[in-house]
Design a protein that fits this description.
The complex is a heterodimer of chains A (198) and B (171). With 198 residues, chain A is mainly alpha-helical. Chain A has eight helices and no strands. The longest helix of chain A has 38 residues. With 171 residues, chain B is an all-alpha fold. Chain B has one domain. Chain B is globular, with a radius of gyration of 20 Å. The chains are: A mainly alpha (198), B mainly alpha (171).
């Protein structure tokens, strides 16, 4: 999938730049952005490493297991076939908790760890293909679960909004609908795939 | 001092104290986690790099404005504020790019205008879809992602539509 996105974006950029006469900007953007990408990775490294460290402490002290047990009734419905109390479920719980609380990028390292544990636990014969549980977790992370939209609220305040937090109910409604639509789409597609295979 | 300022430090102190109390080698485990984290970055960096560079190229070429311009009459007819078109288009690809455009909307239309409110709700209820997908699937080296993209993009479209409707009805 990524090969089409990458080629598509670069080819489209070339055509648009030729049409709008912005070839010079396009040319400099390649050279400038590769530095920016490294900078982003360095910032991200700090955050990922920080949370990975804390996550290991929480794991070996048995804290994540307790948290996962609390979330198990809901999460085991979404993620079928994963061991209750297993490591994959623990990381999924951490990922979703961090998402809801909006803990400065903590959800990414938790999510990556969860993906790897799902892979280890399911031991699929076809590792090139994403499993249903991997897709469910990823799709949940492409929808926003964050309760308080801190970035939007901070910027609204900065630009002189009379009520920066008035958007809250709308954000919640929109988040819930987005998540419901994406998960329903997953369930429908999964069923369609199964029917095609029969 | 808000609740969220309190949360992260409390979590660090709490997790470390709990670990110590339970007899965990807190320092050893933490540093081991840091090492694992470095490996994680090493694994996902290539996909992340490609995405950042190609999306920036697309923006620099004026592609986003061109596509938004073409879509504007369609969006307008659907009741979607045309100022938010570029935000909707860029949001799935780039968090920093979307924030920059969001600030532009707040500056030119004002945070309490209809466009400003819709943009706020979209930004608050969506994620950087492609970034998330590339990082998560890169972590397990999955190439075939089946229906993941379809579900995620459907989510983004629903997000834009519901955000507009919710602002129209509630605010």
């Amino acid at each position: 999938m990524m090969k089409y996105i990458m080629t598509g974006l670069v080819a489209a950029a070339f055509v648009f730049a030729a049409l709008t006469g912005r070839m010079e900007e396009l040319s400099t953007s390649f050279l400038e952005e590769c530095g920016n990408a490294v900078q982003l990775a360095i910032t991200l490294t700090g955050v990922i490493v920080l949370w990975s460290g804390l996550m290991r402490v929480a794991q070996s002290s048995g804290l994540t297991e307790k948290l996962a047990a609390l979330a198990a009734p809901v999460l085991s419905k979404l993620f079928g076939g994963l061991k209750r109390g297993g490591k994959a479920m623990q990381y999924i719980t951490l990922n979703i908790t961090a998402n809801i609380l909006g803990l400065g990028n903590a959800s990414t390292p938790f999510g990556i760890a969860a993906m790897r544990e799902i892979e280890r636990e399911e031991r699929s014969p076809d590792p090139q293909t994403a499993s249903a549980n991997m897709i469910t977790l990823t799709v949940m992370n492409t929808a926003s679960l964050q309760l308080i939209p801190t970035t939007a609220a901070a910027l609204r305040l900065k630009y002189g909004s009379a009520a920066p937090m008035e958007i809250l109910p709308c954000v919640w409604i929109s988040s819930v609908c987005t998540l419901a639509a994406a998960l329903t789409c997953c369930a429908v597609c999964r069923r369609a795939e199964r029917r095609r295979r029969l | 001092m808000s609740f969220s300022d309190f949360m992260i430090p409390a979590m660090f102190a709490g997790v470390l104290l709990y670990g110590l109390f339970r007899g965990t080698d807190v320092f050893g485990e933490f540093t081991e986690g840091v090492r694992e984290g470095l490996r994680t970055v090493y694994d996902v960096f290539p996909s992340l790099f490609c995405l950042v560079v190609t999306v920036a190229a697309f923006r620099a070429s004026g592609g986003t404005q061109l596509v938004t311009g073409l879509l504007a009459p369609l969006l307008d007819a659907a009741g979607f504020p045309p100022e938010c078109g570029e935000l909707m288009l860029l949001r799935p690809f780039s968090g920093s790019g979307a924030t920059a455009i969001y600030e532009q909307i707040l500056r030119s239309s004002g945070p309490d205008s209809r466009a400003g409110r819709v943009a706020s709700v979209i930004l608050g209820s969506s994620e950087t879809t492609f970034y998330t997908m590339s990082v998560y699937f890169a972590a397990v080296k999955a190439k075939k992602t089946r229906y993941a993209l379809a579900a995620a993009l459907l989510g983004d479209i629903v997000c834009a539509a519901v955000s507009t409707a919710a602002v129209n009805i509630l605010l």
